[in-house]
Amino acid sequence: MSTSTIMARPVDTAPAAAAPPLAANGKETADVRVSVIVPIFNLGGEVAGMHQDLRHGLESYCRNFEIIFVDDASTDHTWRELEKIARQDACVKLIRMRSSFGETSALDAGLKHATGQRIVFAAARVRVNLRSLPRLLAKMDQGHDLVVGWRTPRKDSGLNRLVSRCFNWLVQRFGHLQLHDINSSVIATSREVLDNIIFYGDLNIFIPVLAARKGYRVTEEQVEQRAGSFRQSRYISEYIQRLLDIVAVIFLTKYSKKPLHFLGFFGFVFALAGAGMSLYLFIYRLFGFGAIAGRPLLLLGVLLLVIGLQMISIGLIGEMITYTHAREQKEYNIETVVGA
Amino acid sequence: MATTTEKIYCSVVIPVMNEEENVPLLHRALTQALQPWGRSYEIIIVDDGSSDRTFPLLRELARQDPHLRVVKFRGNFGQSAAMAAGFDHARGEVVVTMDGDLQNDPLDIPRVAAKLEEGYDIVSGWRKHRKDKLIIRKVPSRIANRLVRKTTRVDLHDTGCSLKAYRAEVVHKIRLYGEMHRFIPALARIEGARISEMVVNHHERQFGRSKYNITRTFRVIMDLMTLNLLLKYLTRPLHFFGALTVFFNGLGLAALVALLLDWRRNQVGSDELNVLMAVVFLLFAAGINFLLYGLIANSVVGTGQKRDERLYEYKYYHGTAG
Asked: Is A340 in Cβ contact with B4 (below 8 Å)?
């Protein structure tokens, strides 16, 4: 996990102290600082309007907030526009990446400079109406730990929507999280939640899944999506990467501490099937029923046996890695400790 | 995590999940057993994401009893995680674990702790007269115990008994993860622990439901494989994978020799030759792969495991210090 851009801190460090005031009554929100992180790439003249919307929405909700724009190395005049805004508005912080590192890195950079206990993450790419962000925060006041923005009605291309639907179905299936729009890239949560989950690479879209797995209360809230000039569809390679990410997340959430339980199962099935075929041919040949050399089953049997044993071996190596390297990684997440 | 200056002798760690009827009784029984003992103690109950009234009850009890600490999980993370959390919060010189379902007898706690004092790192309870009605629980348990004894080389009659006492070094040394709470003695054995056992009482379950189910068998077998590997080959995994290399390369070589002999006698057609050669190549490739796994495993272990952190080193230092 040394390559991760965002590392989880030890889970057991006084969670009660780090947690935001549990504003179940909604009265304490004025004191909780909200940091909004908006990654931006080549939006030029549109940033002024975004800033207006954001301010407008946030002011109606609380007075203690900051807006962090992360410019992911835009190549147009976005940065100049942002500087103009920052000169006029003391609540705005700007971060400029040296080159494009993607959304997860932008979130990480924003988080490092955020001072709030509440973090709102809204990728400009998905074009939600930024005035509706406080709705997510209001939902947090009701006692939820993480609120996902549900873009509705969807305004982007049919292909995007179809892929999004497939993706949501897959994540619902394996992540056991009943949300409509898991990959909306619009979330509101607390710093504590982000500190307690491990994400890296492109896994930021799975933050809700990872948080739910850690026992946090995850819910969703509708946000309005605007039609815009955003890219109409993604590249095939991106879809493939998303699929691989799902595999990574399933593994990360369920089996990272017991890889053999996952690999061993398939390994044993393959190895037993392979051993069975090989044994059958062995007996067949031994008792002189005929030649086995020309039979493809021989190759399949040996191949399955080998693949099965290799899966088990890799599972065992995974167990050794877990045992020798992942000691500090806690498998639990404490809500409170009561008593002396 | 130790915040108080007062030294605690015994920490009792109990993971619970949905045991609302048992919790008050458990607390009373523990207090009745531990108060007259005359040694400082703490009770650490880990609530593994209960959905009933277990936690409110525990919180109330903790308010009244300074000996009780309650660790509440955000969700259900499993018994190993609950044990690990309990161990992380334990401050005693001796840590005793037991079930929250009242099947273990708190009166046994001073007894196992005393046995521990005789110079063991772990004392495991042995439910010689098990009070589980169902034959489907006793028989699998007996088979499992034999299997566990064989593979882990930890000679206990009853590994499944939750009532166990540990020296503090042991619980802070072992790496409890996955579903390994079942095999804590074996995990501790990897670190060099001295293990003993003693007969303890066992009662029938009065309230609540057992969370046991038989589908765990496969995962238990997987965990046993892991433990076997860790126990025997943790410092030299190449020997484990190397054996597979020798096996597959030997098989490949034998197949090649047989094939060449047949071929010289003109008994093999060209189609057959193709298939057989593929098998030979496959076997060789597999053998080399296992060799590579062994090398990777060696470097994984070499970069992670610090041998001088093992328990026998502790013993050595204790011994020479007097």
From this structure: yes
